[in-house]
């Protein structure tokens, strides 16, 4: 039946169809359709229309639409005949750089292992397992000693790698390379300010935004109430594209949790609960060195943060199972240039059979990784939902923030976008900073890499991530970074050293995201 | 001190004349005691009411609130409505409390009705969590039972009296830890009642996970949220000090439980603050020279009901973290702005209706004068949309709307 619908086989549509066929949804739809067909009062001639009607009735239509929308959002149209390696990244030197970076991380991890005499992975004894499971909800209290563990890398290390990327084949007329003053040296195509304005149109200054315009004033209360009513209708409709459109103007605090679930396509059913329990039991059985890294990271970042220290225990309950989750690995293999590290089971080095991915999720955390999860704790109380939302967010967006690729949403492009925008629109500022030996990207990079989590106030981070999900794009991060520099321009023009500039931009907690973005995008 | 200097004020010695006196509680007693014969003149402000202990001592506060409720009941006011169990529907904001040794027998009766409950003993005259302990067996109170049985009438001194309240063993837990709320309320006058709630209150978290287990009753790190106690725990973190802003609390509750629930909770907190002040407004002498900034301690249970634990007259103004210091600096600054409109000389006779700009981070909680004026001229004020006017009207509307 479905084949009839897609008669004019557009390459892309065929692809979508093939992907659909592998999903559980397809089996579910087929089953429902077959049940319907087997009813005695069914006429063959009405096949198509009645099935469509029936789907509509049961709400399957919506789920199908959501699934297709999600697929399209995530996967850029890829040519089905291109070999896997080329798919990874069209530009080879970027790909090579990513591989060598990964090798470096793995080496550092291995050396930490030998230094501390701790294995990469180890099975826990029965007694340890029991203790651990009792402590599951209170892991923050008694952890092992981490003083010797260091984070594998921090944003500034990654920045060094990023800026050293250089296309050896490219030489421009100008000796400085095409990027006049900045430190990114790769010619990537980015959007201009005008294109960004069009893309982020719904945030324009003449439109009221949730999260900014719903203060306690009589007229604005009306706006606020209206948004809530509209938002509840959107949630009731269960359609993801609708939720995205709605959230482009922000979501009110009480609806945010549900809207994000809808946009990310998350619905927790029993299978999901079981899967989480399986991951949890994996954590209990085996201890990974990665666990210690995660502990250390949480202790260094979230536990010291005014806004998130309360949620410390939830972070462990999310991050530890996350690193055992092979779904993440699969996603990485398909969609990212990363080649997850591999390791060998002890004693069997070099034998293909015994090669495993380490860690099972393919993600080695860096300093600040825990902050990807922290803002979510304001939205979800139960660890399971928290886990799935975080995993989805990571697989759709955050993985691009610490992998080298020419992906237009990757950290390279975002940095490039930031520098170009800043140079074009705040040339004076950029030049002044460069002349006092302060490259703006050096300060802004950590904001971009952590999606501003931990730098802005908690409610502002949520407002910002609203827009990331709604517009399906991380570019808003660069726009915000530029806006912050513009905002603090007068003070920045007076600085004479790098540390003074850092000082001016050290505390962002009083900033409000929306007015800044609107000023920057729509008021020039 | 920085606040005062920033305004160009001059510090004076104890003997000299002063315009503004931020005193501690002992000096207040001296100034207002009958023997000293000291009279405050019209341009002098002082930061405590003379008999503030009616609100700030645990036993007097409970006494006053109980009396207030009884009075309302006698008047037949709908606020004093009771449910089937005899508990007040709208005014049930303090946990059941008895005074010891005077109410010992009443307490024993109550305890015998529900023998498995936990109660918390607090000495009346102390602060900062000193001397507090939990009891769940009558034997732990032997000391007072002996005293209660003697027939000699010796009025207990402040040092010996205790209050015993029903312990809230189902506090709302966030991240598995117990916390309480510290809110600052500024009162510039009791008759008519004018009070202001500070928007930037904070939550104090315990460093240890909450455990209602009987064996843990002695572990003060689990049960008491006072910073002075938690500071001594091993997990105390001095960067954030276990303090969370009220805005984060609100963000969390709205995000995870919905707006109506969060709004209802904060409305109830405002409600209980206003009524606690009304309860003592009759007995606190309304000296024109006085204003006071109280620290309200509130605990929220897991049904999201707020309970008033106590009111502090000298809330700690020392800072434990850097954001704490900023907040307390702003607090004092805003207090001064409201009490003495900036740019003017202090004059106790002014009308005490601060302009909106001077409110800073305070919200008008209840202004009796404005509320009464509003009832007369309600329509005009709400049409004009004056912020002070509408807020005052809204608050009085809230109180009047529950009047059936």
Describe this structure in words.
The complex is a heterodimer of chains A (about 525) and B (about 400). Chain A has helices at about 1-5, 10-20, 25-35, 45-55, 60-75, 85-90, 90-115, 125-135, 155-165, 195-200, 220-235, 240-245, 255-265, 270-285, 290-300, 310-320, 325-335, 385-395, 410-425, 425-435, 440-450, 460-470, 475-485, 490-495, 500-505, 515-520; strands at about 120-125, 285-290, 340-345, 355. By secondary structure, chain A is mostly helical. In chain A, the strands form 2 sheets. Chain A has a two-stranded antiparallel sheet with strand order 1-2. Chain A has a two-stranded antiparallel sheet with strand order 3-4. The N and C termini of chain A lie far apart (about 55 Å). The relative contact order of chain A is 0.11. The model of chain A is unreliable at about 1-10, about 75-85 and about 175-180 (pLDDT under 50). With about 400 residues, chain B is α+β, with helices and mostly antiparallel strands. In chain B, strands 7, 8, 9, 10, 11, 12, 13 and 14 form an 8-stranded antiparallel sheet that branches. A 4-stranded antiparallel sheet of chain B has the order 3-6-4-5, sandwiched between helices. In chain B, strands 1-2 form a two-stranded parallel ribbon. In chain B, helix 4 (about 60-75) crosses helix 10, helix 9 (about 245-255) crosses helix 10 and helix 12 crosses helix 13 (about 385-400). The radius of gyration of chain B is 22 Å and the shape is globular. Chains A and B meet through helix 13, helix 16 and helix 22 of A and strand 10, strand 11 and helix 9 of B. Chain A: InterPro entries: Rab-GAP-TBC_dom, Rab-GAP_TBC_sf, TBC1D19. Chain A: It comes from Patella caerulea (Rayed Mediterranean limpet).
């Amino acid at each position: 039946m479905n084949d009839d619908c897609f008669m004019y086989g557009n390459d892309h549509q065929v692809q979508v169809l093939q992907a659909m066929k592998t999903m559980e949804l397809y089996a579910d739809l087929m089953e429902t359709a077959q049940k319907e067909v087997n009813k005695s009062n069914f006429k063959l001639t009405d096949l198509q229309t009645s099935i469509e009607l029936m789907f509509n009735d049961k709400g399957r239509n919506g789920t199908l639409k959501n699934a297709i929308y999600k697929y399209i959002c995530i996967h850029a149209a890829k040519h089905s005949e291109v070999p896997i390696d080329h798919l990874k990244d069209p530009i080879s030197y970027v790909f090579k750089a990513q591989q060598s970076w990964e090798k470096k991380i793995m080496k550092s991890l291995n050396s930490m292992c030998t230094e501390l005499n701790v294995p990469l992975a180890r099975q826990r004894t029965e007694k340890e397992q029991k203790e651990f499971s009792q402590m599951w909800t209170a892991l923050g209290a008694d952890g092992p000693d981490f003083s010797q563990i260091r984070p594998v890398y921090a944003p500034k290390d990654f920045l060094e790698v990023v800026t050293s990327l250089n296309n050896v084949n490219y030489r421009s007329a100008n000796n400085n390379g095409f990027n006049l003053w900045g430190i990114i040296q790769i010619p990537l195509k980015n959007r201009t300010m005008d294109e960004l304005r069009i893309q982020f149109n719904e945030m324009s200054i003449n439109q009221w935004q949730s999260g900014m315009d719903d203060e306690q004033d009589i007229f604005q209360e009306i706006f606020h109430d209206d948004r809530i009513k509209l938002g509840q209708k959107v949630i009731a409709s269960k359609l993801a594209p609708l939720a995205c459109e709605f959230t482009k103007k922000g979501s009110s605090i009480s609806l945010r949790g549900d809207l994000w679930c809808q946009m990310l396509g998350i619905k927790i059913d029993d299978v999901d609960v079981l899967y989480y329990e399986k991951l949890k039991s994996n954590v209990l059985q085996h201890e990974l060195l990665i666990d210690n890294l995660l502990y250390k990271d949480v202790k260094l970042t979230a536990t010291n943060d005014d806004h998130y220290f309360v949620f410390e225990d939830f972070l462990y309950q999310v991050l530890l199972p996350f690193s055992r989750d092979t779904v993440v690995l699969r996603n990485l293999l398909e969609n990212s240039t990363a080649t997850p590290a591999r390791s060998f089971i002890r004693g069997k080095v070099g034998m293909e059979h015994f090669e495993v991915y380490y860690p099972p999720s393919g993600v080695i955390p860096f300093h600040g990784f825990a902050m990807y999860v922290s803002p979510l704790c304001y939205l979800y109380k139960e660890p399971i939902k928290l886990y799935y939302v975080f995993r989805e967010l990571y697989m759709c967006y955050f993985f691009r923030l610490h992998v080298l690729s020419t992906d237009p949403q990757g950290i390279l492009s975002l940095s490039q976008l930031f520098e170009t925008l800043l140079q074009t629109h705040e040339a004076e500022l950029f030049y002044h900073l460069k002349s006092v030996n302060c490259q703006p990207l050096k300060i802004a990079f950590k904001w971009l890499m952590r999606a501003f989590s931990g730098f802005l106030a908690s409610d502002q981070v949520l407002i910002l991530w609203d827009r990331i999900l709604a517009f399906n794009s991380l570019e808003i991060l660069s726009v915000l970074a530029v806006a912050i520099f513009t905002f603090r321009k007068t003070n920045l023009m007076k600085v004479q050293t790098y540390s003074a500039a850092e000082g001016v931009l050290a505390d962002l907690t009083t900033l409000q995201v929306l007015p800044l973005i609107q000023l920057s995008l729509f008021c020039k | 001190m920085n606040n005062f200097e920033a305004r160009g004020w001059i510090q004076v010695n104890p003997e000299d004349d002063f315009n503004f006196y931020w005193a501690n509680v002992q000096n207040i007693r001296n100034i207002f005691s009958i023997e000293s014969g000291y009279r405050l003149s019209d341009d002098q402000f002082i930061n405590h009411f003379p008999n503030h202990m009616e609100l700030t001592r645990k036993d007097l506060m409970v006494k006053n609130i109980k009396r207030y409720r009884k009075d309302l009941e006698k008047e037949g006011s709908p606020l004093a409505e009771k449910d089937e169990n005899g508990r007040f529907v709208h005014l049930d904001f303090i946990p059941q409390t008895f005074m010891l040794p005077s109410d010992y027998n009443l307490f024993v009766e109550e305890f015998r009705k529900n023998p498995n409950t936990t109660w918390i003993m607090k000495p009346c005259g102390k602060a900062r969590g000193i001397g507090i302990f939990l009891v769940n067996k009558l034997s732990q109170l032997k000391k007072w039972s002996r005293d209660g049985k003697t027939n000699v009438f010796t009025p207990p001194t402040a040092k010996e009296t205790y209050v015993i309240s029903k312990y809230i063993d189902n506090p709302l837990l966030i991240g598995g830890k117990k916390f309480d709320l510290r809110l600052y309320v500024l009162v510039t006058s009791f008759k008519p009642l004018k009070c202001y709630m500070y928007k930037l209150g904070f939550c104090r978290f315990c460093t240890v996970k909450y455990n209602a287990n009987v064996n843990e009753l002695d572990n003060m790190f689990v049960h008491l949220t006072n910073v002075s106690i938690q500071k001594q725990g091993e997990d105390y973190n001095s960067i954030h000090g276990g303090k969370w802003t009220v805005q984060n609390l609100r963000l969390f509750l709205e995000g995870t439980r919905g707006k109506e629930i969060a709004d209802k909770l904060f409305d109830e907190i405002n409600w209980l603050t206003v009524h606690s002040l009304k309860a003592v407004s009759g007995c606190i002498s309304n000296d024109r020279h006085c204003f006071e900034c109280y620290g309200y301690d509130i605990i929220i249970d897991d049904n999201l009901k707020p309970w008033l634990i106590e009111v502090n007259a000298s809330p700690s103004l020392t800072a434990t973290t850097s954001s704490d210091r900023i907040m307390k600096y702003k607090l004092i600054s805003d207090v001064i702005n409201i009490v003495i409109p900036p740019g003017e000389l202090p004059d106790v006779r002014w009308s005490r209706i601060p302009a909106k700009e001077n409110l800073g981070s305070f919200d008008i909680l209840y202004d009796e004068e404005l509320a009464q004026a509003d009832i007369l001229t309600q329509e005009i004020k709400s049409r004009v949309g004056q912020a002070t006017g509408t807020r005052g009207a809204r608050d009085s509307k809230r109180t009047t709307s529950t009047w059936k």
